[in-house]
Amino acid sequence: MVSEPACSPLSPAETFPLSALNHLLYCERRAYLIHAEGVFADNEHTVLGNLAHEHVDFAGYEQRAGWTLLRALPLFSDHLGLTGKADLVEVRYADDTSPKAGSPAGRSPAQPPRPAITAARPVEYKKGPKRRWDNDEVQLCAQAFCLEEMFGLVVETGAIFYASSQTRREVVFDSALRRTTLSALAALKSLIAAPRIPPAILKPQCDGCSLRAICLPEASAHRAGHLFTPRRYS
Predict the structure, then answer these.
(1) Coil vs helix vs strand at 104
(2) Closest to 190 in 3D by CA, of 75, 84, 35
């Protein structure tokens, strides 16, 4: 998930979109502008990212190698206060589709039982290569938290698919990544609750940022000028 339309500002009590964690770890000021002030702008990078998502942005499913691929699956976690949409979730269903215990013998239930999901792994689509920051991994781990709450299972791994190279990289949701994700969520909630926006700082993340013309990080490198003080004559 690369681009999103300008949204209404969030309050600290509201749920947070999964993409906000990605924005936070990329740049706190960018996260505040988007999610606290409702400011967003596109550039060539966000547009290309949207094009890379075209296939998975349409809800649907297909089956491949024993897995069912669910596209554009809505996600939520009431416990963590997260909501969003997964680009792709690969799931496995239980083979046993027999009626649940307690169904009358010799009678079909009113509705056939749905097979239980026994495994799930989220897949995030990105337009370019892996970057030096861990924001994509944290966003993917947050998706895993949602799937665990929704389906009542442990999600051990996910994957990031890079459209430019057509390669896929596995991400393991180990204890370290889970702690980092929870810490990022706590930092996000504190950021949105803060009374003022983080200062603009020129850094490598500014290259390619769609909000650069709004944020003006270059201005922070200049010292404030001083008004001329007339000389005192005795």
Answers:
(1) coil
(2) 35
DSSP designation for 64: E
Identify the CA nearest to 34 among candidates 187, 183, 143, 191. 191
Q: 10 Å Cβ neighbour count for 201? A: 14
Contact 50, 59 (CB under 8 A): no
Three-state DSSP class for residue 8: coil
Asked if residue 54 lies in contact with residue 75, where contact means CB atoms within 8 angstroms, the answer is no
Quick one: 161 exposed, middle or buried, by C-beta within 10 A (0-12, 13-18, 19+)?
A: middle
Structure tokens at 148: 């665990």
What one-letter code names the amino acid at 99?
Answer: P
Helix (H, G, I), strand (E, B) or coil at 67: strand
Beta bridge pairs of residue 89 = 70, 122
pLDDT tens, position by position, 42-73? 766 666 655 655 655 677 888 988 899 999 99
Cα torsion 51, 88, 186, 177: sign: negative
Quick: pLDDT tens for 122-139.
Answer: 999 887 776 666 789 999
Q: Residue 13 is encoded by which pair of tokens?
A: 């009590």
Bridging pattern class, strands 82-93 and 16-17: parallel
**CA angle (181 as vertex; 177, 184 as ends), nearest 5:** 135
Q: What are phi and psi of 7, to 5 degrees?
A: -125, 165
Amino acid 201 reads I
Give the tokens for residue 152. Answer: 């009542």
What are the DSSP calls for 183-207, one per residue?
Answer: HHHHHHHHHHHSSSPPPP---GGGT
